[in-house]
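Hi support team,

I submitted a single chain yesterday and got back a structure, but I'm not sure I'm reading the token output correctly. Could someone confirm the output below corresponds to the sequence I sent? I've pasted both exactly as they appear in my results page.

Thanks,
R.
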Amino acid sequence: MKINLVDLGRMSYAGALKIQKAAVEDVREGRLDNTFFLVEHPPVLTMGRRAERKNILVSDEILESEGVDLFDVERGGDVTYHGPGQIVGYPILNLNDFERDLHKYVANIEEIFVKLLHEQYGIETKKDKGKYTGVYIDSRKITAIGIAVRKWISFHGFAFNVKTNLKHFDWIIPCGLADRSVTSLDKETGMNLDFELVKKQTGQYFEKVFNAELVSRKLGEVYDENN
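Hi R., thanks for writing in. Yes, this is the structure output for that exact sequence:
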């Protein structure tokens, strides 16, 4: 199966969210094929459906002074952080094409990073066995997952810490899990990583796990901002 791959580069969270929502409707109506957006955001906090304000550890005034926006969004999960050096992926997929199984869909996203980290960097990971999602190195989360589904069209997705400023996670209790920490690929490997190479690897493992062919397209080919 062919899936559009659109690299948005670095884009505001608000801008990417607008594109996601338009793409969800276009995929649902058959105007757009399944599409996978990759993006890197400026620092931003997002609150999922289970989020509690107490899991943000700094005041709105401090966030404003740091230029950090705060969004309430439809995805599952609690509070999370996005920022430079993090690969964020938004698969906009008609899940009728992928067994119409939400648990399998989330497991497939996790499997992307289980395989990538093992095969490319020799890092052994695990998935959370409880109600929480994500990929961990021991108790250190390296990939957060929070999805939403509207009429079997998926949106939101994952955040993979590659060269992320981990100090920014001190602003929050990530995903509301105070007993766990957050890590990044550069910290775990001690390597000066090529961010674009890791992004390419993420696409390659997405193809493997979802048994798909990614076709690179420009944003203007899949999204009309005037609509």
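A quick pointer for reading it: The longest helix spans residues 102-121. Let us know if anything else looks off.

Best,
Support desk
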